[in-house]
Amino acid sequence: MTKVRVIRATERRGVIAASALVLVAVIATGSFVRAALAGANPPAPTIVSAPANPTTASSAVFKFADTKAGVTFVCSRDGAVFARCASGITYAGLPQGTHTFRVRAVAGASTSAITSFSWAIVPPAPKLLSHPTNPTGADIARFTYTDAQPAVAYKCSLDGSTFALCSPGGVTYSGLAKGTHTFAVRAQVGTKPPSKPTYFTWVIDKTAPTVTLAFTKPYGVYNAASWSAGCSPVGVCGTAADPSGVKSVTVAILQGSSGKYWNGSSFSSPSIVYNPATAAWAYPISRPSDGTYTLYVRATDTFGNTTPGAGTTTTFTVDTVAPSAPTLTAKPSSVSPDSTAGFQFASAGYPTGYMCQLDGGAPAPCSTQPQIQGQASAPGATEYNAVSNGQHCFSVFATDAAHNAGPATTYCWTILGNGSAITSMAGSGQYTGITTSFSSPVVAQVTDANGPVPGIDVTFTAPASGASGHFASPCSGTTCVVTTDTNGVATAPTFTANNAAGSYTITAGAAGIGATTSFSLVNTADFTVSGDLTTPFYPGGSQPMDLVISNPNPSPITIAADAVHIGISTNVAACPASPNFAVTQGLAADVTVPGGATRSLSALSIPTAEWPVISMIETHTNQDACAGASLQFTFTGSAFG
């Protein structure tokens, strides 16, 4: 308080006094800090590294650190007075037994809590000189051991029991149970901590190998294919396993029908015969005849443990006979307006299932299977809903326990809606020459109230006699069945006329449709033209020819005037037709001949002036070579009807 008053009295002394006051304040503050530091202990050190516990080493190195900077450390071993130390302190020549290391951090007058570490220096772990083989079939186990440190005592334990003193010369255990056992031994000096244990684990195997039969199939039934695919090599097979290893496997097979055992080549032995198999195991044998068999498998391990009794047993059946084709006991009518189709069926031959198929789709299990699998004539059923209009085909076949698939039974039927009809679309009203093909096919369409109907079998029928013809492949003859496409259209194969001229009708119809549709066709034959000259020729002379035309067709034909051509030849080589003869006028007018008639130009009232004219040309050379020669005429032409 006095100093404060001095400051107020004079400015200069006040400054000096103020400085003194600051110094006092600083000194006072430093004293407070020292007091605060003196009252706070540093954290306990952390031991960074230490010896293993237990250990056989007689030296120990300790490293430690503290989270507070600037501290020093003091250490103690085995209760000794703490003395200043540094991290990495080493102790050597330590005796066996338990030891404790302690360390504290020091900061000024303060020390931390103690951090301690205890460890034991023990003898080396014993070494086993002898032990049982692993695995073994013996129930006696003998162990001998030694230790690198002399004058130690040994303590032994079996299967986790308390360690007890055991002879330095070894220990024997007898009457041991089958299974896994563990022996442990450790060395100890007096009451000091013992060494680490030395362990040995082994298995006493008194159990025969485990045998499995990979051979067995569902229901234990085999057909020719599954027998061949079951084992390699073909025969019976499985697995055999044992901790000690499988030494041998033998197989016996009993045939049920004969009561005889397989002797390696035939079922002829009245008593059981075990045939050697591979240790894997597999025994090759060709598929035996149909029937039931019993298989016995025995395995022996390396210690002589053998499958008891007759061995691991299974029964199997060989069946290569497929069920018969099912009989349909219920089905839709051949033509039906119903879009629901139900089928019922049954098959002899002890079927276990049925596979159904609609319109060539993938076979699938039918909706209703046999209630008792393997029952003779077991029934099945299936139903299809919302089946589209048109033709459909259903197939069903039976399978048995051996997966033999029997022959299929197939049934086709047609679904037609209301207002069904068949109409001709193309091909009617055509003409063609006899024995030639019509240019266009005959085409029909099937419809109902819903529109075109696909999958309908349309039958095209031509007359069996008279003017007619035949359909091309895949049909033949006068009848052809064609199935309508997605547009309800049935297009018949090419139709070729026969050798009878005339008009006729091809009809087209389909089951379930009352009416038919028809196509009018005409076979046309070639007309013939002939002519003759009865008056002898002379050079420069001409003669008209009264042509005779024959029309074999049922309808009139018209021969165009410029369509008839006449060729001339002679029977004398020295008198060629050209340049001696020529047609100096052709047919000058169209000629119409009634159907089925033969008429001359004169009979048809064609004026002579319009007839063809044949002339002998005046050549002003010696034409005596033509004297007595005969002329031959050829006629070609075309007509329209």
Which key terms come to mind for this protein?
5-stranded antiparallel beta sheet; mainly beta; disordered N terminus; single chain; 4 helices; 641 residues; 42% strand; Immunoglobulin-like
Helix/strand-derived class? mainly beta
Task: Provide a count of the helices.
Answer: 4
CATH domain topology of the largest domain: Immunoglobulin-like
CATH class bucket of the largest domain: Mainly Beta
Biggest sheet statistics? 7 strands, mixed
- Average per-residue pLDDT, rounded, comes to 89
- Report the helical percentage: under 10%
Report, as a whole number of angstroms, the end-to-end distance.
156 Å
Gyration radius (Cα, Å) is 61 Å
Report the β-strand fraction as a percent range: 35-45%
Count of distinct structural domains: 7
Globular, elongated, flat, extended or rod-shaped: what is the shape?
A: elongated
Give the low-pLDDT segments: 1-38
Number of strands: 56
Return the CATH architecture of the largest domain.
Answer: Sandwich
Task: Note down, in words, how this protein is organized.
A hairpin with a 5-residue loop joins β30 and β31. The protein has 7 domains: 2-38; 46-121, Sandwich (Immunoglobulin-like); 127-204, Immunoglobulins (Immunoglobulin-like); 216-318, Sandwich (Immunoglobulin-like); 327-415, Immunoglobulin-like (Sandwich); 421-524, Immunoglobulin-like, CATH 2.60.40.10; 528-640, Immunoglobulin-like (Sandwich), CATH 2.60.40. With 641 residues, the protein is mainly β. Mean pLDDT is 89; it is low at 1-38. It contains 4 helices and 56 strands.
